Amino acid sequence: SGAEAMTLMKGAVKEYPLMEIDALKVIEEKLGRLTLGLGIVGAILSELPITPSRLLDTLNRPSPIRDFSWNDREVISLKNHEILVRLLDVCLSIFEHADGPRSLAIRMVHVSGWFAPSAVPIHMLALAAHKIPKKHRRGPRWRKWWRTLTCGLAASRMQRSEAEAAAMLMRFGIARCSAKSEYIQFHDMIRLYARKRGGTRTAQAAVQAVYLRGSIKHSSEHLWAACFMAFGFGSDPFLVELRPSELMFFVKQIVVPLAINTFITYSRCNAALELLRLCTDALERAAESMLSHAGKWRETSISCFRPVQSEAQYTYLWQELALLKASVLETRAKLMLRGGQYGIGDDLIRKAIFIR
């Protein structure tokens, strides 16, 4: 109802002049009473010395939303909620002014969209945020306006801890707490916004954080999300290309245990076998890429020592990739035999033996 929406937007401030109430009603109408947006408005008004009319003026300013590709089918919902996107831009500008351009809270938002749509461990989210490569770019002019409003938050530009950054996200309504301790969760709209704002470079950081900190017991959903990004599934292409050494670690520590657990514990045989098949394809691509790079070393290198050393390194890594591929084929064969697919299992075993 209108009264409930007004209560959400007022936040900790109970009374406003009539003109400010009118501004809140306009914001409510623009948001379409979207609960997520109403809560963020209330958080901003509670945390900062800003009036609803000033906030409305800011939301009416041109937004970086024009940078999005509206032809993309998955951003239709964002296009229908442009005011929410502007509101999220305002929040990120507040975080930037409080902590600087490398704000941990901002980076945590940017990587949040690449995790599974479930609660994320704060330590994993923060690790992914730290893995984002630096990107120097000039911010939009309208952000300077916030410096007159957020002077209270700018008292300390010291790097916030993981817990402090997560607490800030929850204070402003960007994230919400989870029933699990040390976990936070993001709304689907915010996750979509984060993917569009952060780009695929943040996807790489999310995958790295998952294979370094993830576990089947506590974060299997995020392991699957990392596999989707690294291998692609169905008609979706892979988004992240891991280096050969990273790929081998990822396969050994994440992919094979996840596939076995999925097959045996949950009896999701097709999903487990498809994961191993895509993993095999990724290992083949990595091996072929290494062979082509080794050829370029021979053609372009001038030194009589460096090519030998480089070729030896490539050869060793290529052999490790081949052995790992054989191990994955063997695992696929065992699961096939367990499922009664004896013919396919026998073929896979023969391929593994041939490689070795």
TrEMBL record:
One of its GO terms (biological process) is recombinational repair. Pfam families: WHD_plant_disease. Transmembrane segments: none annotated. InterPro entries: WHD_plant. Residues 94-205 form the Plant disease resistance WDH domain. PANTHER family: DISEASE RESISTANCE PROTEIN (TIR-NBS CLASS) (PTHR32472:SF11), DNA REPAIR PROTEIN RADA (PTHR32472). This is Plant disease resistance WDH domain-containing protein.
